[in-house]
Structure formats: structure tokens, C-alpha cells
Amino acid sequence: MNNLLKFVKRITTTVVLAALMVSFATPVMAAPVNNNAEAEQIALELYPDATVVRTKFESKRNGNSYYEVKLVQDDVRVEVKIDAATGALRPRYDQNLFDIASITPTQARNTALNLHPGATVRYTELEYENGVLVYEVELTQANGRKAEVHINAETGAVLKNRAR
User: Over the chain, what HEC string results?
Assistant: First the structure.
């Protein structure tokens, strides 16, 4: 009887361990996103201090579809793209960009305003451009014309300064 109990314990332990190994080895699939509200909730988990400005569903010819959620945090526009089929954040949208940026939105705005004295900021956007995290600062100059300044969000270097 003692040997039978030991055998049952050994089998039970092996089965439990095997089940645990399978459960940890199997990737958890995210759930499909079915509407704007679900997409917005995912975006707000990444940017809890932001406000949703706009959400739209995009369907591509190749069958891929995603939700694009535009947010504003600290008067800076950011966007998040979420795969509609899996609920996964798309690459480059899967991190809070404010956590990556080394300079603040205020520093970026001040850099742009120093290049265009007397201008006012129309908007500021934080996004990746050609693999570089960039603050895009759109200005209205004193003469009423527009100006656009792109600033590397990690180094503070001016990448583009264009007046129209």
C-alpha cells in the first residue's frame, strides 16, 4: 500500500508539473478588438495620463486591420496602433514614447520657439520618423506663415527647420 501511495504521488506530481510547463510555454493570445472603446482602453493602459482625441478602424487591402487611437498628453499628440485580430500593440507603438524621450515637450517647444521668435505653437507631436523618436513642433510665425521644426527626442538636436 505504501508503494502504491508513493507511485500515485509521483504520477500526480509529474502530471501537475507537465501541465504547468505547458501553460507557461504556450503564448497567451490577446483577444480580438471589436470596437473603438476596446481599442481606447488598450491605448489608455499604455498612456494612463492621456486623453483620447480620435479613434478609427483601418482595414488594409492585404486583410490586415487595426485601430488607430490618437491621444493627447501634456499637450503633445501621440498615436497607438492596435491589431484588430489579436489586440496586440503594433511595433513602435508598444511603448510609452514619453518614457523613451530624454527631453521634455517643453524643451522641444522652447527649441522651436527660439528658432522662430514671436511664433506660437500650433501643436506638438511625438512620433517615430525613419527610426528616430522625434518631436514635431508646428508653429505659426508672427507674419502668419507656418513653420515646422523636428527635434530628436533623445538628443535635442534639430533635425528639420522649415518655414513656409
Answer: CHHHHHHHHHHHHHHHHHHHHHHHHCCCCCCCCCCHHHHHHHHHHHCCCCEEEEEEEEECCCCCEEEEEEEEECCEEEEEEEECCCCCECCCCCCCHHHHCCCCHHHHHHHHHHHCCCCEEEEEEEEEECCEEEEEEEEECCCCCEEEEEEECCCCCEEEEEEC
